[in-house]
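Write out this protein's structure.
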Amino acid sequence: MGENGREARYRRESGGIVIGAVIAGYFMTPLFSRADPITLAMGGAALGLSLFSVYQWAVVGEKTNGNKLTAYIGMVLGFGLLAVAIWSASSTSLALDRRCLVVQEEMLTGRRAGGAERLSGQPNAAELFQAMGCRPQF
């Protein structure tokens, strides 16, 4: 097919989506470490199936209701699962930041939060801060 064929048109129309997804993925990388990997994988698989169905429908020419339905369901399910994973990762990150702030204050003041004594064998605040993957809070 030439430059004006269905495949060239599909590439032109879907190129912006790919670039947008790469940019969004880059800026959401810190959240991925706190996201549920199974939800992310299922969302990605649903979006992949959806893109395959759109390709079959737009380029190959298999204009069946099954391809169209699979594309729509895949998109809704995929974006829904990715939204759930991002929301869950955001709430997990906020909860971890609150716990890290307590550990940071303990580390900086030298006193344990709540005034309780640390039991023997427990890690000190600096070790706990590092083990939890905390970042300094301001």
